[in-house]
Amino acid sequence: MAFHTVFLVFLAGLAFFSEAAPPDSADSKHPLFIKILDSVQGSPAPNVQVKLYKEAADGSWELLNSKQTSENGELHELTTKEQFVTGIYKIELDTASYWKRLGLNPFHHHADVVFTANDAGYRHYSIAVLLSPFSYTTTAVVSEPVE
């Protein structure tokens, strides 16, 4: 029950505080924001390896970038406005390495989030992930189209 309460508060907070970056801000150049939380410790999940792929015409996945989350579980600079064109994307989180560093043996080796981006105009995406060793939950806040 406590998990569900914390998760609902997290989702409400994300939705309340998330909004599109102003067109001239530094974040407007980085349209994809990722926040990862560790539900076991109740804290951000630092140093999680994150890979961003774009689906190619033949259905294969092209690796665009690979970075780690910061100490506060966030990742802002995974892609640029110029690179983030209309298409299907996959975010792959290396959850097994994260949990093994903490001495736990997880069920999932990685968590994938696959989504269509910018099919109705250029948008900013905030993707939140709540991790445990045996499950993960994601949610997204997507801005209205921006220029």
Describe the structure.
Residues 1-20 form the signal peptide. Belongs to the transthyretin family. Thyroid hormone-binding protein. Probably transports thyroxine from the bloodstream to the brain. The protein is an alpha+beta fold and 147 residues long. The chain has one domain (2-142): Transthyretin/hydroxyisourate hydrolase domain (Immunoglobulin-like, Sandwich), CATH 2.60.40. Helix content is 16%, strand content 38%. The protein is built from two helices and nine strands. It has helices spanning 2-17, 95-101; strands at 32-38, 43-44, 49-55, 61-68, 74-75, 87-93, 111-117, 125-132, 135-142. The strands form two sheets. Strands 1, 2, 5, 8 and 9 form a five-stranded mixed beta sheet that branches. It starts with a helix and ends in a 5-residue tail after the last strand. Residues 14-27 have low confidence and may be disordered.
